[in-house]
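Problem: given the chain below (343 residues), write out its structure.
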Amino acid sequence: MRVAVDAMGGDFAPGALVEGSVRAARELKTLSKLILVGDETRLKAELARHGATPPLISIHHCSEVIEMGESPATAVRRKKDSSINRAIDLVKEGQADAIFSAGSTGAQVASSQLKLRTLDGIQRPAIATVFPSPTKPFVLLDAGANTDCTPEMLLQFAVMGMVYSREILKVPNPRVGLMSIGEEDAKGNATTKETFTLLSRSGLNFAGNIEGHDLFEGEVDVVVCDGFVGNVVLKTSESVAHAVSVWLKQEFKANLIRIFGAICLVGALKSLKRKLDPSQYGGAPLLGVRGVSIIGHGSSNATAVFNGIRTSAEAVKQDINHLIVDEVKKVQARISAETSSAS
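Solution.
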């Protein structure tokens, strides 16, 4: 597997990107090549800090970086020699199988869609984000790529999420839930109501509508919503997790008895921290484009980079895109047959 890494993207670039890449090159047996894309001088200096450069790693020099505050569409067009653009070019040209970036999400989505194009049967790509729950992780999509969606797009998101859950998260028959304002079939807006009908006819393991309080109950494996709702859920969940961590620290430091209690619970607290740590999941795949494009968090550390590269390689190995195209065709055929018989 050949992975191109945008080594200049993210809050801790290029240090964390290089460190995570070096670890991946040394530990991941499925990798055949890692290409660090960015300023050659800076990347060589970072590699020198880690001793001998693993033979799997090479550098692809570029002169520009798309900053977080820039307009994604404008920056993608104007900064053709940016690290994100050049890394995606490597996938487009067949020199890499996947890209990982912790840089501008908007720029990665725009460049991936422009250069790689969408898969057959897919109207728009979607960001799939893995969330932890008390029983098992679930995947939510779209997490921000499309703020306005049609029912057909949401149906396609459901298919892509099902394939990702089955192949990457190893859920045998993923249950799909549609995010709405009530569990009843008639609840929701016009888009969710029509999506409900399509999902009911799709042949997928559709669990019906779910509400916000159902997300972390472990009842569904795939949560479908538009990018506006999904991004709000993502950012709110991150904020709540951070707030709970701060509150726990404040309460445990309140007096000596609580400090002693914290010491007794240190193992459980560390386990909880690992479950809530987004770096363990590495990144969110942009599903629906030709190639594998993994979006890392802007604050990705070396562990997140390592896991993002691991996820990239796993997605290539499982041939996710081929499976998505096949499943979309099957679902469309089922819905057509169901509609015809109903009329």
